Amino acid sequence: MIGLYAGDRLVAGHFGVRLGQVYHPWIAAADPDLAAVSPGQVFLIRAIAAMDELGLTTYDLGPGHDHYKRAFAGAEAAIGMGLATAVGPAGRGARTAAQVWAMAGGWPGSVAARLHRRLEVIAAAETTLVGRTKGLAQAIAGQARRRFATADES
């Protein structure tokens, strides 16, 4: 975990995995009460500045969300993705589902790709069908609230 503090208050951070001189943050968080001062942006500036002291040569922000990552990127690297499944009906079902998602718009930023990412996050956090259904309903309601709020600001 790499964190940014204001006094004793943790205001932003990344939790992830370090392999040698490379840090791969998995979970990012910033204090929403401080959104007006962009604690996530300040965090990245300070984390990158501290890389030498931390013994890091690479701070791998991963793919996607270019709107904030591009400003901090010193280099880009092509990555690949794959799928390994079990032999049998369950594996065939998983492969078919992956192919359907790919055909529906597997390119980053597409509606299908964003929906797929959201469903993966919900599935990782909610282990029951009821929980996953509630998570999907909350995601849809949140999207609707954001769209109406943006329309009202126009």
How would you describe this structure to a colleague?
- With 154 residues, the protein is α+β, with helices and mostly antiparallel strands.
- It folds into 2 domains: 2-72, Aminopeptidase; 89-153.
- Helices cover 49% and strands 18% of the residues.
- It has helices at residues 39-49, 51-54, 66-69, 89-105, 111-125, 129-153, and strands at residues 2-6, 9-19, 22-30, 58-59.
- Strands 1-2-3-4 form a 4-stranded mixed sheet, covered by helices on one side.
- Strand 1 and strand 2 (9-19) form a beta hairpin.
- Helix 4 runs antiparallel to helix 5 (111-125).
- It is globular.
- The model has no long low-confidence stretch (mean pLDDT 84).
Structural class: alpha+beta
In whole angstroms, how far apart are the ends? 39 Å
Radius of gyration: 19 Å
Low-confidence stretches: none
CATH superfamily of the largest domain: Gcn5-related N-acetyltransferase (GNAT)
Major sheet: size, sense and barrel closure?
4 strands, mixed
User: Which percent bin holds the helix content?
Assistant: 40-55%
Measured by DSSP, the beta-strand proportion falls in: 15-25%
Question: Which descriptor suits the 3D outline?
Answer: globular
Number of helices: 6
- CATH class category label of the largest domain: Alpha Beta
Element-by-element helix/strand order: EEEHHEHHHH
